[in-house]
UniProtKB/TrEMBL annotation:
PROSITE patterns, per database record: GST_CTER, GST_NTER
Organism: Tardiphaga alba
Superkingdom in the source lineage: Bacteria
Domain (GST N-terminal) ranges: 1-87
Name of the protein this chain belongs to: Thiol:disulfide oxidoreductase
Domain (GST C-terminal) ranges: 90-212
Transmembrane segments: none
Amino acid sequence: MIDLHYWSTPNGHKITIFLEETGLPYKVIPVNIAKGEQFKPDFLAIAPNNRIPAMVDHAPKDGSKPVSIFESGAMLVYLAEKTGQFLSADLHARYDAMQWVFWQMGGLGPMAGQNHHFRNYAQEKITYAIDRYVNETNRLYGVLNKRLSDRDYIAGDYSIADMASYPWIVPYKNQGQDINDFPHLKRWLEKIAERPAVQRAYAVAKEVNPNFGQPPIRTDEERKILFGQTARVVKD
C-alpha cells in the first residue's frame, strides 16, 4: 500500500495518474495547502520542503523498510522502477524520457507556476512579470509542440514524461495561451485526456477537494499561507 499525501494541484495529478494507470493500491491522505496542513509535523517528516505531493511506499520492491519520497519527479521515477512500467529499460529510450521529466520539473512547471501567480493571484498586476512568464510559457509550449510534431507521445511511447507535463498544460487558459496555436500539443492533450486512468485521476481531485477547478485563493488568510512563506516557516 502506498500512502499518497496529496492535494489537487498539477504536481499532485502526476502521481494519481501514474497510480491509476498501473492499478497500484494507494490511499490518499489529503493535505489542504490553503489551510496550512503542509506544515504539520507528520507531513514535514516525509516532505521537508513543505510541498505536495509526497508518499510512503510500505511495500518497496526490495522488501525493505518503508520508503518515503517527496518531489513529484522523483516519485514518478521511483514508481516506474518499482513497477517496470512507463520508463523503458533500454538506455536510449530511458534517458529520452528522463530528460523530458527534468525539463518539466526545471522549466514548464516553475515557469507556468509563476505565470499563474502573476496573472491570476498577485494583487498587484505587474506588467513586466506577467509578460515575462506568459512569454516563457509560450516558448516552452512551442518546444513541446515541436517535439510532438512527429510522435504520439513525448518520448515515443506513453511514459512518465507525459504524466509529468500533461497536468501543467491542462490549465492553458489560465496561462494566457491559445492551444490552437500549438496543433501537435493540442492533439497530444486531447489524446491523453481520453485515457480512462487520467479521467479517474481527475475524479480523485474532485473527490478530495470539492472546490477543485475554482480559484484556490478565497481569503486573505489563504493568501498569506500560500504566498507569505519565508525561512521562518521552516525554522518554526
